[in-house]
Amino acid sequence: MDSFLTITAAILLVGSLSSTASRQFDTECYTANGEDYRGCQNQTSLLGGKPCLFWNETFQHPYNTLKYPNGEGGLGSHNYCRNPDGDVQPWCYIADHEDGIYWRYCDIPTCQMPGNLGCFKDSGDPPTLTGSSQTSNKLTIQNCISFCRKQRYTLAGMESGYACFCGNDLDLRRHGKAPSMECNHVCFGDHTQPCGGDGWVIVFDTRVGACGGNYSAPSGVVYSPDFPDKYGAGKVCYWTVQVPGASVILFNFTFFDISDQTDMVELLDGYTNQVVARFDGRTPPREVVNVTGDFVILYFYSDRTNQAQGFAVTYQGGFTHTHTHTHRQTHTQTHTDRTNQTQGFAVTYQGKRHVDML
Ligand SMILES: [Ca+2]
């Protein structure tokens, strides 16, 4: 826990030093179905939702802490929404039964993977996304994204579990965002993924799950090839992350599922091609990786056997020279911490303020 707090403090410090990095990744979920959600929403929706039952009291149901005593699926002595069974979104048991249903999905505004742009009304005439389309009884989020990406569309939308629409532009004012629950019909090709609803389209950025790309924004997220599907066999992918003016780039693997040690992710110095860090099924990332400089290459390789879901990695450039807006006392403090930080993760910032920000 100490090292986790330390890392978090370091990220926050770098974040606060950066004048241009936006906080675009306030999400608590990096998977499409929120299986990684570990937040604290304990009702089915924030407005007028039903209260969730405690997982250590739901012994009459299949998911409870007696059956899963070691925190599997994020269960514990709490009543927070979770997705322990690979459903399309987090859910919880509720006290009242309606038509024999004793559980409900949770609409969690803070749980939306980067690249999922949201759920939108589709009246069909004209469709919300006006490019190519196809239908498939094997539809998954990624095979729709790939279909659209190959035709150079920037957006891919899934509807009713089997329809895929492509487009380049989404008029948010005209189409108005809907709660995630409207878009949680299962994908016909993968029942753990949400693929829109009847008259509702779930829209993704087609960069999600691409094999390679170039990133230059101050912060961003890179997903493994084919995410949220399993990565394919025999993949060799390179992404460049070049943040002009950054003195350091931090990489945080928010999701990591690689099942063997022949598949791997590496971070290389973009100028020297030296490997800075290497991770595989046996050596998963355990802390934030801090790469000095402004240019990093992310590399992924998979062999022919044992595919898994892959990874989500966020990056954040650090700009050590931009502290003109900080107050003098803070300035001295950040300067000291920054010096420590470039030597690794030696920052021990134990202020409660940072804990609260978690
Ligand atoms: Ca493999």
UniProtKB/TrEMBL annotation:
Domain of life: Eukaryota
Bilayer topology term: Single-pass type I membrane protein
UniProt signal peptide: 1-22
Localization (cell): Membrane
Domain CUB per the UniProt entry, residue ranges: 211-318
UniProt xrefs under InterPro entries: CUB_dom (IPR000859), Kremen_rcpt (IPR051836), Kringle (IPR000001), Kringle-like (IPR013806), Kringle_CS (IPR018056), Kringle_sf (IPR038178), Sperma_CUB_dom_sf (IPR035914), WSC_carb-bd (IPR002889)
Keywords: Disulfide bond, Glycoprotein, Kringle, Membrane, Signal, Transmembrane, Transmembrane helix, Wnt signaling pathway
Residues that span the membrane, as ranges: none
Record PROSITE patterns: CUB, KRINGLE_1, KRINGLE_2, WSC
Keyword Transmembrane helix: yes
Major site of localization recorded for this protein: membrane
Keyword Ion transport appears in the UniProt entry: no
Chain ranges of the Kringle domain: 28-111
GO biological process per UniProt: Wnt signaling pathway
GO CC field: plasma membrane
WSC domain mapped to chain residues: 113-207
Gene3D superfamilies tied to this protein: Plasminogen Kringle 4, Spermadhesin, CUB domain
Name of the protein in its database record: Kringle-containing protein marking the eye and the nose
Species this protein is from: Hucho hucho (huchen)
